[in-house]
Amino acid sequence: MNQWTDILDVNDIPRLGARVVRHGNLDIAVFRTADDEVFALEDRCPHKGGPLSQGIVHGRKVTCPMHGWNVELASGCAVAPDEGCAREFPVRLESGRVWLDLSSVSAAAA
Ligand code: FES
Fold this sequence. Notes:
Layout: E1 4-9, E2 17-23, E3 26-32, E4 38-42, E5 56-58, E6 61-63, E7 70-72, E8 88-89, E9 91-94, E10 97-101, H1 102-109
Antiparallel strand pairs: 1-10, 2-3, 3-4, 4-8, 5-6, 6-7, 9-10
This protein binds FE2/S2 (inorganic) cluster.
């Protein structure tokens, strides 16, 4: 069952950047695109665990600050030829507030 939880105001996330939300031992990077779309991924690059939240968002991708892999925000997966995926969490935007499905987060943290 979904457990939608209001986690922050979209204006607390820099455009083309991210804000980290901690749940248990999991760091979740919540990204904001130029068009104010929001996405949530575990804050660990599928390459060597770099902090995706510190990368630059372009379009619907983020570039990892460590070695420059590009990761799709919608899926968490690296753009070919690189391979691997960061965990992706359901998130939605409603009246300027960002909601995260904590049931999926708890399952990932377990
Ligand atoms: S850790 Fe992200 S590109 Fe290497």
